[in-house]
Amino acid sequence: MESNIVITSRVRLARNLINYKFPVNMSPDEWSKVISEVDQALNKENKNYRLTYMRELSDVQKNSLIENHLISPALAEKKDSGAFLLSPDEKVSIMINEEDHIRIQTLGEGMALKECWNLSNKVDDILEESVDYAFDKELGYVTSCPTNIGTGMRASVMLHLPALSITNQIDKFLYGVSQLGVAVRGVYGEGTKSIGHLYQISNQGTLGASEETLIEKITQISMQIVEKENRTREHLKKNNYDELEDDFYRAYGLLTNARKMTSNEAMKLLSLVKLGSEMGITPMVKGKDIYNLMVKIQPNNISNIVGRELPKNDRNKMRAEIIRNELLNK
Amino acid sequence: MESNIVITSRVRLARNLINYKFPVNMSPDEWSKVISEVDQALNKENKNYRLTYMRELSDVQKNSLIENHLISPALAEKKDSGAFLLSPDEKVSIMINEEDHIRIQTLGEGMALKECWNLSNKVDDILEESVDYAFDKELGYVTSCPTNIGTGMRASVMLHLPALSITNQIDKFLYGVSQLGVAVRGVYGEGTKSIGHLYQISNQGTLGASEETLIEKITQISMQIVEKENRTREHLKKNNYDELEDDFYRAYGLLTNARKMTSNEAMKLLSLVKLGSEMGITPMVKGKDIYNLMVKIQPNNISNIVGRELPKNDRNKMRAEIIRNELLNK
Question: Nearest Cβ partner of B253 from A245, A257, A260?
Fold first, then answer.
């Protein structure tokens, strides 16, 4: 059950080079130098990381990378200076000339913060063999924005919390969680608004505690949220079985029949069939990777299939078709 | 296409016996006498009409007969005096001691007013061989309520008008029709409200015109309405194909997946898939008798299956199951 609720883990390290100003104050020539320094440092051991410049990408491609969590919206905006290196398995993404010179990001499935931290650490070590980091004995890693100073680390998990959401407990509960010094935000929503009942929990501070301590804290808090979500699911199953069964089957009926669908509606319905399958109430979607489907049907990921920005109506038709094919196994 | 829009035809004749007061003023003994006189008159030729007394029936059974259009709500209220005779093929129903002593009702599928009139006429002749009708040379058949005096005939057709309904033309259009001297009302709705986009058209007056003239008038007006409905369907197909396709498939998805459903929602969705099938946009329900399903899922028809009044929630669950089984051919 845990791995269905904790969908992905992510660890990001912010690093800067001692011999350069922060990206915002750099010249085009310096941007290029930093990019090639990082590229060479990483690829010297034949790692096959693929370098992509922001200037090579269309808006649809950049937004699609954001929807896949491979780059940040801030990097996408650096159309002249930005670049990123991606490992062949797409688990490591190194953003260059975003807010900081280097941002190492590692991704893992389920609750995998420790694995991500180990992997980030390894990549960090490889880079450090070749480049000189800006590091202060008192403060730790120097970053462009003071909130990242210290470990320069942000550890986050993405949680799927449909039961807490449909019982209207989520806002109050996550507000309580945010009081423990973690940041809570929605995924794929404007600002902190969540769609598909997906939420992201990450550490607020990066200073005054070791990476291991921060990761342990996020892990602990996440497990508490998972427990609360699970208890709410059990309660719902016991007390609202009929309503839920009807809701889940209706969601499935719409997903497998509609001829056009907005991403908002699709996310809501997919979240319901995911919950139904995990609760054993609606087994039709068992074994289907609903979260991957949620990513796949984001607006720019759909446009990216045809290689250009599709009008909304065409996107909604293609989205409905992708969902039908996926759920009906065609 | 016509037979999908004109669903059923009905002709009703009001008749009274000369030797009795109107039912409302009769004694229990006289009620019985009228019932047995009509029963004997009709069954003397071994017609196998089944006699049923209102006092023998539960509320659920009476309401189920109303939902099947075999008796009127007014007869169901005559719990001490009322009875009806039903032909083996259920095409002829003779209500006794309703508002009038005798009401002969004949039912046919599609546009069949002439056939219904001929059948009613035949049954009327058989009765007249044995009983004495109250008939006035000037006025015609004498009836309890003056609006039925004259021919005592009401001819009606039930129309399925989804295209006129979803394009919001129906109210204005049917108001225009009502100015031609016909009565328009919804079927299965409170008062004149329609559910499932079903409407009934019948003659307003029963005096001053022959039965044949009245039937010709209702037939002509119905064919005009059918033509307007068909033209609207063509317009919709040409201009709103995508929206309609999506609406129809969504309706089908809900009907074949929901685990509970109110009759209001079911009627609306069934009307859509019926339209979709007839327009060739959603062929999944082709050959299914959607109108019969609409009748089958009325509240009392569902309760009647288990023989007692079911709580609303149980009814909604059973309704969803009946619809799924019917549409998925299980």
Answer: A257
Which portions of chain B are predicted below pLDDT 70? 1-3, 46, 189-192, 330
Q: Do B259 and A246 touch (CB under 8 A)?
A: yes
Mutant choice from B242, B247, B259 vs A, greatest count of A C-beta within 10 A: B259
Question: Considering CB atoms only, which of B249, B256, B259 is closest to A259?
Answer: B249
Closest CA to A49 of A70, A73, A79, A68: A70
For residue A1, the model assigns a pLDDT of 46
The rounded radius of gyration (Å) of the Cα atoms in chain A is: 21
Rounded to a whole number of angstroms, the distance from the CA of B40 to the nearest CA of chain A is 52
Cβ-based neighbours of A125, under 8 Å, separated by 6 or more: none
Q: What is the ipTM of this complex?
A: 0.88
How far apart CA A19 and CA A9 sit, in angstroms, is 32
Cα–Cα distance for residue pair A48/B208, rounded to 1 Å: 96
Strand order in the sheet with A153-160: A50-53, A83-86, A92-96, A102-109, A6-15, A153-160, A198-203, A182-186
Task: Provide the 10 A C-beta neighbour count for residue A214.
Answer: 26
| pLDDT tens digits along A129-186 | 999 999 988 888 888 888 788 889 999 999 999 999 999 999 888 888 888 888 888 8
For residue A52, the one-letter residue type is: T
pLDDT in tens, A192-247: 678 899 999 999 877 778 899 999 999 999 999 999 999 999 999 999 999 999 99
- Report helix, strand or coil for B12: strand
Nearest 5°: phi and psi at A267? -65, -40
pLDDT digits (tens, 9 = 90+) for A255-301: 999 999 999 999 999 999 999 999 999 888 877 789 999 999 999 99
Residue B260, classed as helix, strand or coil, is: coil
Q: Which residues in chain B have their CB less than 8 angstroms from residue A255's CB? A: 253
Domains, chain B, ordered by start: 2-230 (3.30.590.10), 241-328 (no CATH)
CA distance B245 to chain A (A): 7
Across the interface, whether the CB atoms of B257 and A252 are under 8 A apart is answered yes
Global pTM value: 0.90
The answer to whether B250 contacts A249, with C-beta atoms less than 8 Å apart, is no
Residue pair A295/A301 in contact (Cβ under 8 Å)? The answer is yes
